[in-house]
Design brief:
- This protein is mainly alpha-helical and about 625 residues long.
- Among the domains are: about 1-165, no CATH class; about 165-275, Serine Threonine Protein Phosphatase 5, Tetratricopeptide repeat (Alpha Horseshoe), CATH 1.25.40; about 485-560; about 560-630, no CATH class.
- Helix content is about 65%, strand content about 0%.
- The chain has 34 helices and no strands.
- The protein is globular.
- The relative contact order is 0.03.
- Residues about 1-10, about 10-60 and about 625-630 have low confidence and may be disordered.
- Belongs to the PPR family. P subfamily.
């Protein structure tokens, strides 16, 4: 390869050369398309992998080795970059040069092994030695572009196919559809699907499945369902009939389940069985997961039993999703029983299984059991990963056991597991909650030594922690630094500062920060209004607080019961019972239920008013569900 590095870029200009003239006189076109070039993702530098000192078959002629490599490794997709580089260099130096189909086998093996960047590099070299790609070469290149989220470059290759007189096949269109769906460009994918049919290219079940998967993933489940019916019956607008497969049924059923359309998913489940298809583990897992999620335990268990009776073996993913649902619902005994069941059935739990169960124990405050499970992971054939540590660290922090969390963090580093941003966010939250401001600041500095960039959540935690520990000037200094660095400021960050200045009695600065929201292109949310209205009420500026309340509703931000309570408390303290009653009636009109704080305000109001019976008659009647709270 060229030492200048130009060979590390895909020469898309070569796609437009005259197929009758395999020359290298296309440098001008190449420069025009330089924006489409691909950077080298890492060129292998190791030596020949088949030298006599390393390879036991070194005495076998290189030609025989090459044939075996192309026939076995490339066909199965078991290709390393070093092997590919060795044989590719040999192929382009052979006299005569091997036919293009030999290179296609190599490119196909690299594509199967997900070494797309290496395909781009080898394609460059192929062109540089005067070898012309054929239809299969270009399809492999197009597929590689689409697999690395470069569908636009895939269309460039499509243009080359047409210019060379080739007719794009179903494989070509399917690869482009997949690339567009991966980039969530579902509208373009749908138009392309229509185009291929109009041009007389018959979609296969894989083509339909690719588009259906993209539609489901982007929330277009109804469109996906219509496309499935078109595929099955051929009675839609396209007039194309293509019998579905187990995979296509699995795709649409999974999409329907994720969209909450379980009944429709079950209809398709019955339909596929009526058509003679045996549901696979993916289909069963999708339905069982959704039934568990909706707490239809008996139906889920019945389907799980049916799955086993049909000879379909649940896999680790099946159990993981079920354990996850049960843990989120707080059914830890059932989750533990499922773990035992999967072990009994010879299915090895993975680290994700243990992390999920640990998280369930932490959410329930059962940290000792979570810790025991954490320590048992190595004995069960797995190793704790960063997520394992994060789950337990977060559990300790939420239960205010910050010392155990810090000890676990140190153990994590000592064992060579690199902390993540989530690790530091959990620890910073825990340290600030315990008032350990200096320790939190030191940890934030330590985060930099791990080459981890703080995210928006990290800075929100830092600003909130500093403000709530009476370090508002330090918080403002951090905020100014972020502004100077052009960091994207969020409304959550400003909420922390506004709240901090309000509680520090510096309402003027808080108000100025509130007014800057629109200049920053940010809209105040319910928390922003809540904090600002509370600050104004504390300072006795009730009219200004009420004006902000009215503005809030006008801006489409619906007040919650907390904001009503804040305003009512303020007006109650100023003995304005009429305004309190008015706000209570507004709550009823907006279907907001009173909470214990509302009840306390009403009691205070009645106790202050000498004519409390008249005031009592003016109080609104809340719905029955609310009245029980008022009694």
């Amino acid at each position: 390869m060229s030492s200048s590095g130009t060979a590390s870029k895909v020469k898309l200009s070569s796609l437009f050369t005259n197929p009758q003239r395999p020359t290298s006189s296309n440098s001008k076109t190449s420069s025009k398309l330089s924006s489409l070039f691909i950077k080298n993702q890492g060129t292998p530098t190791s030596s020949n992998p088949t030298t006599s000192s390393e390879n036991p078959i070194s005495k076998v002629p290189i030609q025989t080795q090459l044939e075996r490599f192309l026939e076995t490794n490339c066909k199965s997709g078991n290709v390393t970059i070093n092997e590919a580089l060795h044989y590719f260099e040999h192929m382009i130096q052979m006299q005569p040069t091997p036919p293009i189909w030999s290179f296609n086998r190599l490119f196909g093996g690299l594509a199967k092994s997900k070494h797309c960047s290496q395909v781009f590099l080898f394609y460059n070299k192929l062109i540089s030695v005067g070898l012309l790609p054929n239809f299969i070469t270009l399809n492999i290149l197009l597929n590689c572009f689409c697999n690395v989220n470069r569908a636009r470059d895939g269309f460039v290759v499509m243009g080359s196919l047409l210019r060379r007189g080739y007719r794009p096949s179903t494989v070509t269109y399917t690869a482009l559809l997949k690339g567009l769906c991966m980039e969530d460009r579902i509208d373009v994918a749908t138009r392309l699907f229509k185009t291929m049919i109009k041009l007389g290219c018959q979609p296969t079940v894989v083509t339909f499945g690719t588009l259906i998967n993209g539609l489901c993933r982007t929330g277009n489940t109804n469109v996906a369902l219509r496309l499935h019916e078109e595929m099955a019956n051929g009675n839609g607008v396209y007039g194309v009939e293509c019998k579905p497969s187990v995979v296509s049924y699995g795709t649409i059923i999974d999409g329907l389940c994720k969209a909450g359309l379980v009944d429709k998913a079950k209809e398709l489940f019955i339909e596929m069985k009526d058509r003679g298809f045996v549901p696979d583990v993916i289909v069963y897992s999708a339905l069982i997961h959704e039934l568990y999620y909706n707490e239809k335990w008996e139906a889920a268990k019945a389907l799980l039993n049916e799955m086993v009776d049909q000879g379909v073996r649940p896999n680790v993913v099946t159990f993981n999703v079920l354990i996850g649902v049960l843990c989120r619902r707080g059914h830890l005994k059932e989750s533990s029983d499922l773990l035992k069941l999967m072990i009994q059935r010879g299915i090895d739990p993975d680290v994700f299984t243990y992390n999920t169960l640990m998280d369930g124990f932490c959410l329930a405050g059962r940290l000792n059991e979570a810790r025991e499970l954490f320590h048992s992971i190595p004995s069960r054939g797995c190793e704790p990963d960063a997520i394992s540590y994060n789950v337990l660290i977060n559990g300790y922090c939420k239960n205010r056991n910050i010392q155990e969390a810090v000890n676990l963090y140190k153990e994590m580093i000592g064992k060579g597991t690199r902390p993540t941003v989530i690790t530091y966010n959990s620890l910073l939250t825990g340290l600030f909650h315990m008032g350990k401001v200096q320790d939190a600041q030191e940890l934030f500095g330590e985060m930099q030594t791990q080459n981890l960039l703080p995210n928006s959540t990290t800075y929100k935690i830092l600003l909130d922690g500093l403000c709530k520990t009476d370090c508002v000037p330090e918080a403002m200094e951090v905020f100014r630094t972020l502004e100077n660095c052009n960091f994207k400021i969020s409304v959550e960050m400003l909420n922390c500062l506004i709240d901090g200045f309000c509680k520090a009695g510096n309402l003027e600065v808080a108000w100025d920060l509130f007014l800057t929201l629109s200049n920053r292109g940010l809209a105040p949310n319910v928390i922003t209004y809540s904090v600002m209205i509370h600050g104004l009420c504390i300072e006795g500026q009730l009219e200004k607080a009420n004006g902000l309340f009215i503005e809030m509703e006008a801006n489409g931000c619906a007040p919650n019961v907390i904001i009503y309570n804040i305003l009512m408390r303020g007006f109650c303290q100023s003995d304005d019972s009429a305004k309190v009653v008015e706000l209570l009636h507004m709550m009823v009109a907006r279907n907001l239920s009173p909470d214990s704080c509302t009840i306390s305000i009403v009691i205070d109001l009645l106790s202050k008013d000498e004519k409390y019976r008249k005031c009592l008659d003016l109080l609104p009647t809340f719905p029955a569900t609310s009245q029980s709270k008022m009694t």
